[in-house]
Amino acid sequence: xxxxxxxxxxxxxxxxxxxxxxxxxxxxxxxxxxxxxxxxxxxxxxxxxxxxxxxxxxxxxxxxxxxxxxxxxxxxxxxxxxxxxxxxxxxxxxxxxxxxxxxxxxxxxxxxxxxxxxxxxxxxxxxxxxxxxxxxxxxxxxxxxxxxxxxxxxxxxxxxxxxxxxxxxxxxxxxxxxxxxxxxxxxxxxxxxxxxxxxxxxxxxxxxxxxxxxxxxxxxxxxxxxxxxxxxxxxxxxxxxxxxxxxxxxxxxxxxxxxxxxxxxxxxxxxxxxxxxxxxxxxxxxxxxxxxxxxxxxxxxxxxxxxxxxxxxxxxxxxxxxxxxxxxxxxxxxxxxxxxxxxxxxxxxxxxxxxxxxxxxxxxxxxxxxxxxxxxxxxxxxxxxxxxxxxxxxxxxxxxxxxxxxxxxxxxxxxxxxxxxxxxxxxxxxxxxxxxxxxxxxxxxxxxxxxxxxxxxxxxxxxxxxxxxxx
Length: 471
Prior knowledge:
single chain; alpha+beta; Heat Shock Protein 90; 2 domains; two-stranded antiparallel sheet; 8 strands; flat
């Protein structure tokens, strides 16, 4: 069985379906929404189980000799079987009360703050699985052409397929559990006469992770978070400007509306609005901004990076017709090989170290102070998480944006002048996530076939055509 055949039975889910359910719950009224919430619970558990079962089928489809090369398979399989069992148990029972429905939503999406939820277990075990594949993939990059290198490419492609299913599962679990929780909580408080005045619509909008969002507001929040992180590590952050299309088609700087208090996620809002998975889109923007800010610090120096006279980072957002998207432009040093920046494990072997001619300098030309021996060279303080790590931020962002229906992140690098990172996606969220999952499975089939052929004929030169198909 091929990997693509193993995921063929997975049912596609679109973000438009999430919105349709929320709108149906509101139209159904207070009592009808509770029945819909139970249906949503069954639907979400069944959808997660569908994707978990696909992951198990993918691993069963692997040739035994390749499976032996993949680390952590048994642990990964056990975690998926636990998730499948939890989902099957829920789907086989009918919650007897709003309290039991509320408990079920916490078990799926992880809102209780207590025991690990199904979604948490899926995500945590998926991260461990990625980490366990690093060594094999990195070793393959240094291996000569042939089976030794191709086995690493096959593991890399296999991991992308499994993680794409993971992202989809976690996204589904948390979204539908949030909706179910909002409805059940509202009904429970009505029963106990302790309602806080929030309408069902307000609760749904507060709990959802998919909806119509203002891209300019989202970009502003991402810029503030990334700037705060950069300032914590370097002492300062470059200026970031959010821009929207103006009347004549040129991008103009956007200013927040001080009178705007809430975001309506059930209907379009803002000049540039789109149906997006909020957490996914914000994560991708923050990761791109972290790379851009790091490039500015390396080029202009931490002491002067926030100088008004230096070029700023711009985030252009737009939404028109069927398409929406964003574009981040920086003025750092660029990268010599832009394709490598999106490679899944491109910097998995070690944290990046500065080149001799790439050490940070101040805008006045002086060398920035180097970090004391034993401390990370990239930032001035040693507390908290590192500002840049193992190169997984961009690739994970790529997966997220592909599952939203777009082609992922495109990167244009102008060495010595900066980079432009851009992403587009369907504005109305009407593309199923299975499109991206099947695309990843197709690449896995190509990689595994190339490895098998090279293993059968060690002296054949199959690397070049496979790399052409991959890139």
